[in-house]
Automatic annotation (TrEMBL):
<dbReference type="InterPro" id="IPR005273">
    <property type="entry name" value="Ura-DNA_glyco_family4"/>
</dbReference>
<keyword id="KW-0479">Metal-binding</keyword>
<keyword id="KW-0378">Hydrolase</keyword>
<keyword id="KW-0411">Iron-sulfur</keyword>
<keyword id="KW-0227">DNA damage</keyword>
<dbReference type="GO" id="GO:0004844">
    <property type="term" value="F:uracil DNA N-glycosylase activity"/>
</dbReference>
<comment type="similarity">
    <text>Belongs to the uracil-DNA glycosylase (UDG) superfamily. Type 4 (UDGa) family.</text>
</comment>
<dbReference type="InterPro" id="IPR005122">
    <property type="entry name" value="Uracil-DNA_glycosylase-like"/>
</dbReference>
<keyword id="KW-0004">4Fe-4S</keyword>
<keyword id="KW-0408">Iron</keyword>
<dbReference type="GO" id="GO:0006281">
    <property type="term" value="P:DNA repair"/>
</dbReference>
<dbReference type="GO" id="GO:0046872">
    <property type="term" value="F:metal ion binding"/>
</dbReference>
<dbReference type="Pfam" id="PF03167">
    <property type="entry name" value="UDG"/>
</dbReference>
<keyword id="KW-0234">DNA repair</keyword>
<dbReference type="InterPro" id="IPR036895">
    <property type="entry name" value="Uracil-DNA_glycosylase-like_sf"/>
</dbReference>
<dbReference type="GO" id="GO:0051539">
    <property type="term" value="F:4 iron, 4 sulfur cluster binding"/>
</dbReference>
<feature type="domain" description="Uracil-DNA glycosylase-like">
    <location>
        <begin position="94"/>
        <end position="248"/>
    </location>
</feature>
């Protein structure tokens, strides 16, 4: 596969190292220090396959969350005892980012131990990679110009990092739905297999992440794109190129 100069710059920003372009003389050694984030033009589309089924009516929200604004919803989540995860959490992880209209709602696999301690999503190295990924797609979760809101699929960390159980996912579904209703995003980006399977729905049961990528799904009448979790990309940097394709798909989809 080949990339033009713009694509190579974007992949470098995400930390994906490409082989040097062959020249008549040996290329200079690649610096060991990761390059600082750069601002580049909008990435080109990389849509491979788009599947947009007919939208289904979104289910009604439980009355306990339906009338709350974001600050009140955050307080309700902090005090929530809707499932057993509340018994061992240190802090509920409500989410962070755009506080009004968000272009993207980014939904991740459950919080890790550092996020549970901080009460904020993506507080460590995976968060720094996520910020570079969002910047590559023209999005941000911080500052006055924040355009993305990031939140885990369940708001309390399951013990020992296990996958959330169906009842736990059900308990948090109404919170996520209310977040989407308040933020009115143009697109939902799912990070990781657990978030992807839940948001895609029953058809995704047992499917690997690779089978769910490269498509535009629907969740509550919103376009949904699936990609790798940043923590996984830190362990498997070769898949950053695939994440780049997913971000291009998400960017192009959110424009329509």
């Amino acid at each position: 596969m080949t990339w033009d100069a713009r694509q190579r710059a974007m992949l470098a920003e995400m930390g994906f190292r490409l082989p040097a372009v062959s020249r008549a003389v040996a290329p200079e050694p690649e610096p060991e220090v990761e390059p600082e984030p750069i601002v580049v033009a909008a990435p080109p589309p990389a849509i491979v396959r788009v599947v947009v089924p007919a939208p289904a009516p979104a289910p009604a929200l439980p009355s306990g969350f339906a009338g709350l604004d974001l600050p009140a919803l955050r307080e309700a989540v902090s005090a929530c005892r809707g499932c057993g995860l509340c018994e061992q959490r240190r802090n509920a992880v409500f989410g962070a980012g755009a506080l009004q209209s968000a272009q993207w709602l980014v939904v991740s696999d459950p919080a890790d131990e550092a996020d549970d301690a901080a009460g904020e999503p993506f507080s460590g190295e995976a968060g720094r990679l996520l910020d570079r990924m969002l910047a590559a797609a023209g999005q941000s979760r911080a500052g006055e110009g924040a355009s993305a809101f990031v939140t885990p699929i369940v708001k309390c960390r399951p013990p020992r990092g296990r996958a959330p159980q169906p009842a736990e996912l059900d308990a948090c579904e109404a919170v996520l739905a209310r977040q989407a209703e308040l933020l009115q995003p143009r697109l939902v980006l799912a990070l990781g297999l657990q978030a992807a399977r839940r948001l895609v729905g029953p058809d995704a049961a047992g499917e690997p992440l690779g089978r769910l990528r490269g498509q535009v799904h629907r969740w509550r009448d919103l376009p949904l794109v699936v990609t790798y979790h940043p923590a996984y990309l830190l362990r498997s940097p070769a898949d950053k190129a695939g994440a780049w394709d997913d971000l291009c798909l998400a960017r192009e989809t959110s424009k329509t």
